[in-house]
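Structure first, sequence second, as always.
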């Protein structure tokens, strides 16, 4: 009984070490993609702060409705946050699909960073009320999401 228990402990330690090593290798393989995820999280934080600061500056009552007027900067910044919230789940799932299907790390990183860059530009264009450029960068972000799905499906 003692030997069996000790063998089970040794196997559990070996499995834990192997799993930890595998996770580290996975993180290193997709390092640039992991940084893109972090950059996207940072962008979301900045968007929330911009919306909050503008809300305070315009003395907006939290929870009160904001009119649907693109000439209103507060409307534009809150729409930027809302639109990012609408697309972030697809980005995370598509990125996870690429990683878990062992898709090309370089192609995954390129598509992930294209999404992040498009979302940064989208926010800036929305803040500046540059509608045509906002629409173009929104389209680029959708193309980057579709690319992530294709990369996961066809390069894994």
């Amino acid at each position: 009984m003692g030997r069996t228990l000790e063998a089970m402990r040794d196997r559990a330690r070996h499995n834990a070490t192997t799993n930890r090593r595998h996770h580290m290798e996975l993180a290193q393989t997709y390092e640039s993609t992991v940084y893109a995820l972090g950059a996207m999280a940072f962008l979301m934080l900045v968007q929330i702060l911009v919306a909050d600061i503008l809300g305070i500056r315009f003395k907006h009552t939290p929870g009160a409705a904001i009119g649907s007027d693109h000439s209103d900067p507060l409307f534009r910044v809150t729409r930027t946050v809302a639109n990012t919230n609408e697309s972030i789940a697809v980005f995370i799932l598509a990125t996870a699909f690429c990683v878990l299907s062992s898709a090309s790390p370089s192609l995954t990183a390129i598509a992930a960073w294209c999404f992040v860059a498009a979302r940064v530009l989208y926010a800036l264009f929305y803040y500046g009320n540059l509608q045509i450029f906002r629409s173009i960068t929104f389209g680029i972000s959708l193309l980057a999401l579709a690319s992530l799905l294709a990369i996961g499906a066809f390069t894994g």
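Margin note: The helical segments are 2-29, 31-57, 73-100, 105-127, 131-154.
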